[in-house]
Structures are given as C-alpha cells and as structure tokens.
Amino acid sequence: MNRIQKTFHNNNKAFVAYLTAGQKGLEYSLQSSLAIIEAGADILEIGIPFSDPIADGPVIQKAMEDALERKTTPEDVFSLVSKIREINHEIPIVLFSYLNPIIKKSDEFFKEAANAGADALLIVDMPLEESKNIHEKCFKNGLELIFIISPSTPKKRISKITKQAGGFLYYVCRKGTTGMKSELPEGFENKVREIKSISKLPVIAGFGISTREMAEQVTTVADGFVVGSYFVNAMGNSISQKDLTESAKSIKPCSYIYSVSGN
Amino acid sequence: MKSSILHSNNGYFGKYGGMFLPELLIAPMTELAKSLKIAESKSFQKIFRNLLKEYAGRPTPLTEVKRFAQAANAPRVFLKREDLLHTGSHKINNALGQCLLAKELGKKRIIAETGAGQHGVATATICAYLGLDCVVYMGACDIKRQEPNVRKMKMLGAEVRSVNAGSMTLKEAVNEALRDYAESYENTHYCLGSALGPHPYPQMVALFQKVIGEETRKQSIKYLGRLPDKVVACVGGGSNAIGIFSGFLEDDVNLIGVEAGGRGAMLGDHAARFSGGSPGVLHGTYSYILQDDSGQIADTHSISAGMDYPSVSPIHALLHDTKKATYTSVNDQEALAAFKLLSKTEGIIPALESSHALAWVMREGKHFQKNEIIIICLSGRGEKDLNRDDL
User: Fold this and answer.
1) Contacting residues of A for B20, CB less than 8 Å apart
2) Interface pTM (ipTM) of the complex?
C-alpha cells in the first residue's frame, strides 16, 4: 500500500490541508506545514506558485503573488517537500500546480518531485484529454496523477476520468474559483454519491470549506475534505505556528480525530 | 472551407492550440465548440454577413497611400481600411459574430476582456444592439492609457471592471474574465477578443475575421489586376492578421506579422513572442509565450495596449513554424513615428497597434522591388491614442 492508500484504508476519512509554497517565505511554509500536520491533517497539498492562477480566488492569488515576489521556484518547492519528508515519512504529499511550470521543466519536474518525496501531482489546468504524456511521466516516476471532477462534469466523463485517475478524486464542489464560503452548494451530496457510484477511488471534496460543520457535512458522503483558502488567508496574516495548529484542530471533525492512521 | 489551416484538428493547429482549462470549464467549452457548426452554417452566415454590411459598414475600402509610400521610400502601398468600420476597428467583426451566436445559444450576459479597449467597445456596442448585458474586464493600466474607450463602453451601457493584479494589462484582464466565466457560464458567454485562448476560440475568431482577407483578395484582383506581393499586419493576439492572411494562404504572397518590440530585447521589455518566447500554455492554449526559466509568465511592455500580451494565437504559431508567414517586430519609437507619418501624409490617424505594421514598411520599404504591391491591414483608428504627451 502506498501512502495515499494507507490514508484511506479502513474507510478512514481524510483531512486535506492546502498551502501555497513560499507564501511568507519557505521557512514559514515549512513550519506551517509541520504545524498543520501536528493538528492532524491527513494529506498535505502543496501549491507551486504560478503567475496566472485562473482557477484561484483572491486569497490564493495573493499568496502566489507573495511567493513569486520572493522568487519561489519549483526547485524551492521540491526542497520544501524533502524537508517535510525528513521529519515526517507517512503523510501523503500532493503537489498542486498549473501546467506551464511543468512543461518548462519537462522530465526533470517529475524526477525531482518524486525524489523529494511527493506522492502525487494535481494539475489544475490539464484536463483528461491533454493528460496522456504527463500520465506516462508520472507513472515512470511513481507519482499518482490526481484528477478533478466538477459540478459540470457529466456522468460519462466521470467514468473516463476514473479510468486514468490515481490516488483519489478531487471533487471541486462549486462553480467559480477557490475561496471561503459558509455553506455547501445545492446538490452536493447527490453529486458525490454519483461519483462514488461510478468510481472506486476515494472522493474528497474541496472549494470553500472552512468550518468544522461543513467538514462534518462533507464527510457524511465524501471520503475527505480540503481546507485551502482558510489556511492561506491565516498565513497571509502571519498566523503563528501554535495558532495555526489550534485553528486546524478546530476544523477537524471530532468524530474521526483519533481514527487517523500513520501520524 | 478554402483555407484548411484555419480549421483546427479537434482544437489543434499542428501541435498548437488545445483546451487547457480547469475541469469546471471543460463542459461549457465543449458545448461552445459544438456551436461552431451553427456559426459555420449557411443560415447563420447569411444573417452575420448582412449585419457586417448594414450595421458594421462592410466592405471596407482598399486605399492607396502614395504620400506615405513616398515618405517611406516604398513602392505602391495600400491600406485595408478596417479603421473605417463602426467602432473603429476590425474587432466588431468578431464581436458581432460571437454575440449573435451567444444569443442563438440563449445566453443573456456577455463578458469580455480588453486591452486597447477596441474589443471592449465593439462588444459593448453589439450588446447594446442585441439587448444583452455586458461586463468588460480591463487592466487598470490600460483603463488609464485608453481612457476614451472606457467612456465609450460606459456610454454604451457596459460595466467596465478594473483589474488591479500583476501588470494591470490584458493578461490580467483575461484571468479575471476566465474567473467570472467559471462562475457564470450557465447564462453567460465569454466573448474572447482575439484568435487566442482555448478551443474553440482561435477557430471561431478566425471564422469571423476571415471576411477581411476575402474582401482584400477580391479588391486586389478587381482594382489592381493581380494579387499583392506582401500583406502586412500587426500581431497582438493576432486576429486582424489571421483575418487578412487567411485570404492569401494558398497564394504566393509574402505574409508578414509584426509584433511589439517595445523598449528593448530583454524579457519584460517587449511582446515579441516569436523572437523572445518559447512554446507553453497560457489561458487555455499551447502556443509561443513569453516566460522565465521557471515557466512563470513574463511581464510584457508595449506602447500599444492591444499588443501588450505574452501569448499569441496558436494559428500564428503554426504559420510561423511552417514558414507560411514570417514574423518580425518594431519598437515603440518606430511605431510612434509611423503613427505620426500616416496622420500627417494621408489624413488617417492609425491605431498604435496598426502603426506597428506601418512602421515595418517604413523601415523595410527601401529594400522592396520597385513594382511591388504592399497591402497593410489598418486594423483600427487612433483617436483613442491621442492623449499622449509624446505626440
């Protein structure tokens, strides 16, 4: 079993935490990652900053701008991953990227990501139809390729995506861009059920989840939830490691706080 | 279709093009791609062509500019007068086509990005004419330098949304339009202004702009008894160039695309994608882009807001690689000199974008054969550019 499979083993639910690498500096990203892991996050999603993040709302845009002003490169992100790996061997690490930095580094990207200890890759602007090449390179380097399902993804397409997808499916549960919202969108549960009826992969949901209530609601049907903008916003305000840990703990549903394997 | 190069292979022009978008936008964009069939249909084209004539003012003349040619030391030079169209540029061809199509698809709201404001004005105009809501995204820097066009859009009933991110120009305006579309696609059509972006836009915009080339070819044969030797157009995103080039793709005619050389050859100082860029993905399409060593999209600079963009149409990328067309650049100062020269010698104030094509003829004219015929696409008029201190 690989790290991602272990996480979802025995129907465990996963708390996925996102942060943008290089926001407030790489050392801050490292300490923040550790603080979030300490709070019981089950999967870490690390965003590689990109100049034109069209799928992201203002909070993550600002974080990426900050990281790029500090000249954060993909190489820096890999070194962040290996530093986290030195301390924590178990937590799955998913690299979240836009396509162009990957095209630019070509084969090296996959090698270096795998060597640093990343488990999977999620490429936000690479749909299934454009993924063949990347898929092969991921496979060669032992990286899972995570795919996104959206509210607009038709049934037929979900099963096509499922055939190519590795790790888990990421259900982006609403239209628009990333950002904090106070409730789940209409039709959420039905769509997750639809996805789960088609795919055996775990389904985690993200986009706008920022409270424990929402996380609990999500995980009644889904296998996990992603918290992104909420943490990124806090890090934008230079939250301390201690407060970040508390904040992450306050989101993680109590019902499975002790059921986490591996940490 | 006569020019097969304008017809993508499933969204691809050679290895360029594609639909590189977040999953959320794949379904709506696939729907839009299906509507290409409607746009190409006889019944749609009939309505479209009729409105191009009766509303937009086609066909546009082919004007010989003798005094300009003499000053430039060039042989016979003709201008394809897209500047004389309603709203002052070729952008109305595409805005009319897309908004008609959007209405056919039942969309009530149109969003657009704009750099120089010409596409924004054209879209706002057609929205007023067809009774559609219109929101235009424009970089804060462009709002400042193309202020007359901002006034026009507001007068026409459009909402202009200022974009403050990054370099505050066209690239950031496209980012915001895409984000809006991700939220609004159910009732909204994104009217993209150039032959750029994800499939089906490059093919769709080329379809609506090819009328420029068709007319130019006919006029050249009818009035000059032969085809031109050279056809020159500025290339920002590249829609006016694709429009005029498309009439001559099967012919032995030199096609020259002129990019913005800006203020220098360093990354960040220009928008010359073919000389300074390399293939990559931006805004949904694989084409030549200006980027740094880490694959971050570079800032661009041009005196002309409509040329100030780090990517270029995938159709031009293919024409470039297959050497069907050649691409070159002129700098800010050369463009400004051409702007002034055409105004003073011909009584025609060109847009700063189109001035790049004029400037190339000014620079190279002395090397042309004496009996050559040069046609320049005068893509727009320059009233919007008059509030500069250096004129």
Assistant:
1) 99, 125-127, 130
2) 0.94
